[in-house]
Write a structure and sequence with these properties.
Largest sheet: 8 strands, antiparallel
Shape: globular
Structural class: alpha+beta
CATH topology: OB fold (Dihydrolipoamide Acetyltransferase, E2P)
Number of strands: 13
CATH class: Mainly Beta
Radius of gyration: 19 Å
Strand content: 25-35%
Number of helices: 6
Number of domains: 1
CATH architecture: Beta Barrel
């Protein structure tokens, strides 16, 4: 028991600075995101509004997108997604690992129904930025996240997928995930079954490789935001 307490104390000391600015989330594969999304759309954010939830404890932001392309799900001209956090007057709430959308920005969203209506599946991990190359063609990349992503199979913290894809390759990757039995021949795509290399975060390796300890640490870090996240679960 004394050894366990020493380990927990050491873990707390190492993770205290991290907990102040990050939370732990399970790393989700691209295929899993595609499979679990109700819809996948690309669009431009045209407006946002923030409101209190029914308990008047949490601020919810509703972001409306003009849809230009649908990769999965029913066609729609607009979609409005609800995410925890936002600003009302001088009060601001921010949840680590949740995207904040700005009018005028273009994104690809993995959308899932929640208690508050459509929301972004896996939050930062279900959000992609759309920019333009020198020729004006759209390119798709993951949004940056300050959450620590953990591979639950290895217990290691891993880096976020930073691959930049053309819109054509991104669409091909979605199609490959939706129809794994079909042959894929799009240029620039990795063979199925191969994922981008994931870089371990060395400062956390000794702690995160112990799955029980990982669960304890993750539970402690997530406790303060658990109620907010629960509001978005089915």
């Amino acid at each position: 028991m004394r050894n366990l307490l020493r380990i927990l104390s050491a873990a707390a000391l190492i993770l205290m600075p991290l907990a102040a600015q990050a939370s732990i989330a399970r790393a989700v594969s691209f295929d899993e995101k595609v499979g679990n999304a109700d819809s996948i759309v690309m669009g431009k954010c045209i407006r946002t509004r923030s409101e209190w939830d029914t308990s008047h404890k949490w601020i919810i932001t509703y972001s409306t997108f003009a849809v230009s392309k649908t990769f999965k799900g029913a066609q729609a001209s607009e979609v409005t997604v609800a995410t925890p956090g936002g600003s009302i007057g001088s009060l601001h709430q921010h949840t680590i690992g949740v995207p904040q959308f700005q009018p005028g920005a273009e994104n690809v969203l993995f959308v899932k129904q929640s208690r508050l209506g459509p929301s972004v599946l896996y939050y930062d991990q279900g959000t992609y930025s759309v920019n333009r190359d020198a020729a004006g063609s759209p390119i798709v990349s993951s949004v940056a996240t300050n959450a620590v992503l953990v591979d639950t199979q290895t217990g290691q913290a891993v880096s976020q997928d930073s691959e930049v894809r053309s819109l054509r390759d991104f669409e091909g990757h979605v199609e490959a995930a939706l129809h794994p039995e079909a042959p894929v021949s799009r240029l620039g795509m990795a063979p199925r079954g191969q994922q981008p290399a994931q870089r371990p975060v060395s400062a956390l390796d000794l702690i995160l490789k112990h799955k029980l300890l990982t669960a304890i640490v993750a539970a402690g870090i997530a406790l303060s935001t658990w109620q907010m996240w629960r509001a978005f679960q089915k």
